[in-house]
Amino acid sequence: DAKTTQPNSMESNEEEPVHLPCNHSTISGTDYIHWYRQLPSQGPEYVIHGLTSNVNNRMASLAIAEDRKSSTLILHRATLRDAAVYYCILMDSSYKLIFGSGTRLLVRP
Amino acid sequence: DTEVTQTPKHLVMGMTNKKSLKCEQHMGHRAMYWYKQKAKKPPELMFVYSYEKLSINESVPSRFSPECPNSSLLNLHLHALQPEDSALYLCASSHVGLAEETQYFGPGTRLLVL
Q: Is the pLDDT of residue B98 over 90?
């Protein structure tokens, strides 16, 4: 199972952009990069995913390095509701979402 | 409707009890999953069902017995659990289980084994 490395925690101010990094140097050509987040006392929630190209949706943007060995989740304007643990996950064809330790994002008002 | 429901929300059981956790989705998804999450740890995959058949068992002890009676329902039968099995049990579903699909998670059942 491919592994990801993320900082344990990050802090941001409300209304400012947040860049959450993820390293996945052992990624294979067919692995998708998924981001999920888990708010306190809730199940994980899908944020975004991509394969090679950068992706945007209503929640966030995903920037994928050209060599695919790293990616960055971008929250354009952090709100207090974005305080959560963010998981960067590589998904292959085995159906498995293997969660790493994630990054705990603290948003200051 | 992108909701996965789980019942009960909370469960307390003794080590000799038998209980079941229930998960339901009405999105027409054919892949369903059970995860276990200990406090302050990430979720860990336990089982995967694909088209109502068990496709992955991540070496889970036999005191956990999954069942998929139809394409909308997933059960987890519990018997002779240990206190270390206390955790949040999460159910998820996805379309058919491909790598590019989104998994939709339920809110979980918080289990305490005494």
A: no
